[in-house]
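Write out this protein's structure.
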Amino acid sequence: MNSKNNPAPDISYFRLSLMEFLNESHPERLKDNRFIIACTEAATEAYEQAVRNGDTPVRAVEQANAVLFHGLHFSKYDTIKNILWNEFANEVPEDTVEDLATELLPECEPVFAGYPVSEGFAYEPDYDLLYTELTGTIALYLESHELQ
């Protein structure tokens, strides 16, 4: 499968891709080794199966990535970061947003629990309600920690 002219991605390629994505959008999942192993093995298998079925390497990578990132398109962490950037830019320095978003994740979890968060949730009408409720939760947190 691996040729010198067109080397195919292997499990380390998919693991690195997943780790980079988790670091950016789901840092709370970085220590979940079982999840990471399962996703990378499934992506590698999807790639190999696609190639066996005659798909081009590009199409095989697309299929593998669909498996690799399944269930990760909506990010609670990214949602919190966006709220901090959009609603609290004057109160929260840009260089502290990522650390503060990590700190806020457990604080915001009860709010997220009240919504059917899924892959395409950011495009559903309830997202605006979630956004508003999270903004209030974050404002209260910032106020109580004298960050606002």
